[in-house]
Amino acid sequence: MRWNQMDRKIMLMSMMQIQREAGSTISRILDVVVPEEHMGYAKLGPEGWGCAESPVGLCVYNGIEDRAMDQCIFCGWPDERK
């Protein structure tokens, strides 16, 4: 099956919308499950490591106090598994 330019554009726009909605949903979930001392500063690491102790199943880091993402607020592991 060959994709024409319009098909590719529609697919890309659809993927971008899904990504925006997923980011918004994850942000709302983090607002509910993150401990109060990290509230508003929590972010997922770029590697997206699985975390058995996290309610969202991924490592979460305090983006202000832990900019290097050395300690997941749930399991304590760094984002780059040294």
Description:
By secondary structure, the chain is mainly alpha-helical. The chain has one domain (5-62). 35% of the residues lie in helices and 7% in strands. It is built from one helix and two strands.
Separate helix tally: 1
- Average pLDDT, all residues: 84
Order of SSEs: HEE
User: Order of strands in the sheet with the most strands?
Assistant: 1-2
Can you describe this structure in just a few lines?
With 82 residues, this protein is mainly alpha-helical. The chain has one helix at 5-33; strands at 42-44, 60-62.
Please describe the topology of this protein.
Layout: H1 5-33, E1 42-44, E2 60-62
Antiparallel strand pairs: 1-2
List keywords for this structure.
82 residues, mainly alpha, two-stranded antiparallel sheet, 35% helix
